[in-house]
Design brief:
This protein has helices at residues 49-56, 76-88, 95-105, 112-123, 148-151, 167-170, 180-193, 204-214, 220-230, 260-271, 280-283, and strands spanning 4-13, 23-36, 64-67, 131-136, 142-145, 154-158, 235-241, 248-253, 275-279. It is of the alpha+beta class and 285 residues long.
């Protein structure tokens, strides 16, 4: 049985800004979404990327989602789209053509998640264990090195599925403009820190989240969670991820797993209805 493994994605910094020409940093994550053929074909909403792709390409065969434990909010809709293009072309992927098609159909979206997931698929599984992906709207993905020290001190907290906001609906809302020149300074500061064995400066995550809060992109619930996580001992920076900064949360913590600070973070996460997935290093593709 032919299968396809597609990583998830996580916006570490830069969502919303990348839509208006700013820069972003994303991670391709495991465990992958695994697609193949079994008794239950994958049904896609007509307005979803895969639903639109099937409308444009009616010859696309049926296929199934065999494994998708990351769940929604980690790029599942673009993973579905990649699988549709893969099975529709008998195991061949034309990355640039698929990205062009996506931009033509979803003009309000950045395309960063699709680009990063496609790049990871093309490079092969386990090709990115020590890298993140830099992205600028309309550009190619670039590789960013990340140190062991840093990736073991950024923790991923999974939000409850029912709190996820539909990205394309969220992008229709009218809000104050984002200034890429301001957000790019924060993204560039974050990028500079990735390969350095130091937690100094990881407050940039909170600064970026606060900027999106000022421009009315952060939901009330995400803002409350961010404030609670920020008050914990050893926390250097907190940011929600995705639409409304509400899908998931990343926390930069002074100490690695097993420390008292980590245990405090675990307890607080459970109280807030979040699931601790572990460190970024545990999940890099």
């Amino acid at each position: 049985m032919k299968t396809l493994r597609v990583p998830g994605k996580l916006f570490l910094i830069g969502e919303y800004s990348v839509i208006v020409g700013g820069r972003a940093v994303l991670a391709a994550l495991k465990p992958p979404y695994i697609y193949g053929h079994n008794a239950e074909p994958l049904h896609a909403h007509p307005d979803s990327p895969l639903g639109q792709f099937r409308t444009s390409h009616p010859e696309t065969p049926q296929f199934s989602l065999i494994e998708g434990s990351l769940g929604p909010g980690f790029g599942s809709s673009t993973a579905d789209l990649i699988a549709g293009a893969y099975f529709g072309s008998e195991g061949e992927l034309d990355s640039l053509s698929l990205q062009d098609w996506y931009r033509s159909k979803f003009k309000a979206a950045s395309g960063a998640d699709l680009a990063v997931q496609l790049d990871a698929v093309m490079r092969g599984e386990h090709a990115s264990r020590n890298t993140l992906s830099g992205y600028e709207h309309g550009s190619q993905v670039r590789t960013l090195q990340i140190s062991e020290f840093v990736k073991e001190r950024i923790f991923i907290l999974k939000g409850a599925p029912e709190t996820k906001i539909r990205t394309h609906e969220d992008l229709k809302l009218q809000r104050p403009a984002i200034k890429p020149e301001r957000s790019n300074l924060l993204v560039d500061r974050f990028t500079e820190m990735l390969s350095v064995d130091s937690m100094d400066g990881f407050s940039v995550l909170s600064e970026f989240a606060e900027y999106l809060h000022e421009t009315d992109r952060e939901t009330v619930g995400a803002h409350k969670i961010r404030n609670e996580l920020s008050s914990l001992p050893g926390v250097r920076g907190v940011k929600g991820c995705g639409a409304g900064l509400n899908d998931h949360f990343i926390v930069a913590l002074d100490h690695a797993e097993g420390s008292s600070n980590f245990k405090n973070l675990e307890e607080c996460s459970a109280r807030l209805g979040l699931s601790m997935l572990g460190s970024l290093g545990d999940h890099l593709w």
